[in-house]
Amino acid sequence: MKYNCNPIFTGKAITAQRDGETVHYHYGPKDLVTVLFYIFITIILHAVVQEYILDKISKRLHLSKVKHSKFNESGQLVVFHLSSVIWCFYVVVTEGYLTNPRSLWEDYPHVYLPFQVKFFYLCQLAYWLHALPELYFQKVRKEEIPRQLQYICLYLVHIAGAYLLNLSRLGLVLLLLQYSAEFLFHTARLCYFADENNEKLFNAWAAAFGVTRLSILTLAVLAIGFGLARVENQAFDPEKGNFNTLLCRLCMLLLVCAAQAWLMWRFIHSQLRHWREHWSEQSAKRRVPAAPRLAARLIKRESGYHENGVVKAENGTSTRTKKLKSP
């Protein structure tokens, strides 16, 4: 067996002599420098997309400040989610994780990663870390900062957890499901900003959101709760990257379930608020009182016609009585 090391990534690269060389990597302290380098690249790409694509489109739409901020957010995330879905799907298919679901938990811990898997995780961490300074660069409103910090931290915790706990295979599939639903949501919001009467994609996203939450929970319970529980190597050994103990599995499941429950609660809350606003608008339209009808008044008109404000008789003489002059 031959060992090699790539200066970009940390860890040993094992090569198999069967059918050519196959290089694998594992994480280490030098990943922090690599992620920092990719953060600067991501900031540059973010600025390019903003200046050459989103700014030109937003000028044509003439959006308000609030909608303009949301438009920029959704525009950036549509580009990111689309590229991540395509990239993640390619990795999952080429590595055979879809055709063989048992590979998600078999041979755990998955310490050694293929190049494309490690590169994908480092880019994901770089993107969500770059989103923190972008809150300042984009001059996000103070009311929007807590909401954006919540989902940024949520992504960082799950991606870093899957990477450091050697659950990279399961993390790839879960990210594929999550990013697909998020791409649909931000696409629907962009279409809504272009045409406020277009809300069909929101209905499709609402259905996909529920299916995604159920799929993530099912897959996490299947892989962590049942799959890892049947693996022979069950011990807590951080040096070998093994965290397959009952306590660790319960903490992982609790984190995933709590995150999905929180997302589902926010979704239901927003949908109920939207429906209440819709029904209140509809009821307000129905309760608008009709204009009171004036009572018909019979107007007695004098015979003849009007000319210069004076009623004239049929023969052209005035209808007023003439005063007789004394001789």
Automatic annotation (TrEMBL):
It is a multi-pass membrane protein. Keywords: Membrane, Protein transport, Translocation, Transmembrane, Transmembrane helix, Transport. Pfam families: TRAM_LAG1_CLN8. One of its GO terms (cellular component) is endoplasmic reticulum membrane. One of its GO terms (biological process) is protein insertion into ER membrane. The chain crosses the membrane at residues 35-54, 75-99, 119-137, 149-166, 204-226, 246-268. Residues 69-278 form the TLC domain. InterPro entries: TLC-dom (IPR006634), Translocation_assoc_membrane (IPR016447). The keyword Transferase does not apply. It is found in: Membrane. PANTHER family: TRANSLOCATING CHAIN-ASSOCIATED MEMBRANE PROTEIN 2, TRANSLOCATION ASSOCIATED MEMBRANE PROTEIN. Belongs to the TRAM family. This is Translocating chain-associated membrane protein 2 isoform X2. It comes from Delphinapterus leucas.
